[in-house]
Amino acid sequence: MPPLRNALRWTLLATILSLAACTAGLPASVREDLAAREGRSVAATVNGHPILLAESELGLLDAYVAAELLRQEAERRDLPSVTDLVDAELGRTLRSPTLRELRDQFRDHRALYAGRSFKAARKDVERDWLAARRGEARDALVARLAERGDVVVYDRRPAHAAAQTAVAQPAPAPPVPAAGGPREDAPPRLGAPTLGPGSAPITLVVFGDYTCRFCKRAAETVSRLVRVWPADLRVVYRYYPRDGVTGAVEAAHASACAEEQDLFWPMHDHLYAHSGDLAIEDVRALARKLRGLDRKRFDDCLDTRRMAWRVETDIEAGAAAGVRALPTFFLNGRIIEGAASPARFRDEIEAALETLAPLSDSRR
């Protein structure tokens, strides 16, 4: 990442952390009253700690979540600041840059050095190289903390403003649940994309948004779960794009258009792999990389919003089932909010299999 962007991200994080520090010592009721006066409400929770944001700040949600994860970890390690925390992380791996690395840094970001030669700018080049390493250490630490932490991102769409369809279609009737298995609170839509056998004793319904970084992490976890329990787990994906988030609805529509051509899962993986760049033209560019996709049919589907009803049907079903966070899962009807850890899913799946085992034995 360019040093300038790294510096801006650190400045943003420092500002967020200083604002949090100003209110951290206040009673919860006072913080909530201040937030209400400023038009803020809960946008996410990090290990139970609420993050209160106004609508205009939702684009910075990832930065606020990262800042809170780092703040909590610094506190847990009894370190005086997040800077000390990142220094401690960096100290484990930091080494002196090689001459080649410095020359690469200079070549890639020559505009930063105002026409100076490498020799004249070397001290600044070394400083920027170190800033880049600090950014990498911070990002890696945030990823680890998010992996083992409990991060829940809340959806704040009005109760059901998002369900205004471009193509009116009746919602399909939910399927009859498998004998012996509990009915899901959010049943799979007829024809919804699935992974795993239809006879699997456990159904995991996933409500996700392709622009949500925690949904992306959860998708990686789900892929691992399917590999671990190939005969016991069926995954059903349902669209739940956030209202007002750039690219969210467009990405969901693109996925539904790929679903129309039986290419949902390749498109699903592409969208999550590029979740930071999901303007409509980016989505079209990603689609061109899918083998077997009829591009003309796909573009026509996007332009006419032919599959919009599928997205909006899922949004309605999610709202009716009480989806308020992203991602949200229903594991045989049991709701799991947020990007739960692989260990949490393992425990939930094993508990569900143990519950179903007596039913299976009684039918033999």
Can you offer a commentary on this structure?
It is a single chain. Helices cover 53% and strands 11% of the residues. The longest helix is centred in the middle third of the chain and has 31 residues, at 118-148. Residues 1-8, 14-19 and 158-184 have low confidence and may be disordered. The chain has helices spanning 3-24, 28-37, 61-76, 82-93, 99-108, 118-148, 213-228, 248-260, 264-273, 280-287, 295-304, 308-321, 342-362; strands at 41-46, 49-53, 151-154, 194-195, 202-208, 233-239, 325-326, 328-331, 334-337. The chain contains 13 helices and 9 strands. The protein starts with a helix and ends with a helix. With 364 residues, the chain is of the alpha+beta class. β5, α7 (213-228) and β6 (233-239) form a beta-alpha-beta unit. It has a 5-stranded mixed β-sheet. Strands 2-1-3-7 form a 4-stranded antiparallel β-sheet.
Counting copies of identical and different chains, the oligomeric state is: single chain
Characterize the largest beta sheet: strand count, sense, and whether it forms a barrel: 5 strands, mixed
> H/E series, N to C?
HHEEHHHHEEEHEHHHHHEEEH
What is the percent of helical residues?
40-55%
| Mean of all residue-level pLDDT scores | 78
Class from helix and strand fractions: alpha+beta
* Spatial sequence of strands, sheet with the most strands: 4-6-5-8-9
- What share of residues are in beta strands? 5-15%
Radius of gyration, in Å, reads 23 Å
What's the short story on this structure?
The protein contains 13 helices and nine strands. The chain has 364 residues and is of the alpha+beta class.
